[in-house]
Structure formats: structure tokens, C-alpha cells
Design goal:
0% of the residues lie in helices and 31% in strands. By secondary structure, the protein is mainly beta. The protein has a four-stranded mixed beta sheet, with no helix packed on it.
Length: 59
Amino acid sequence: MFIANRFRIKPFIGKQNEQVYELLNANNSLLRSCSVAHSILPVDATTSNHYHPHAEEIY
């Protein structure tokens, strides 16, 4: 079993200035066309819809 700890993962900053922690992806798990992420948005911020033609993301 793989346990991901958000506090041990360096986030990247997204287009809406959100912090994105990619918990599971093809580099650290058996997932190949999917990733699991945790996002933290600034107060009163929103995200826009987006599309990934070759992968799925779960937030």
C-alpha cells in the first residue's frame, strides 16, 4: 500500500494561483493515465474548467 502525505510533497502553483499537491501519478504509483491531486485555492478564488485529452485528474 502506498500512503501519500501532502506535507511531504512540494506543491506547484497553478494558473489561478492555487497550490496543487499531486499525490499520486505515473511517477510514484501504478497509475498510468490518471492522477490524484489536492488543491488549495486562495480565499474567494475559483478555477476554470479544463480538459486533458490523454489523462484524468481527480481533485
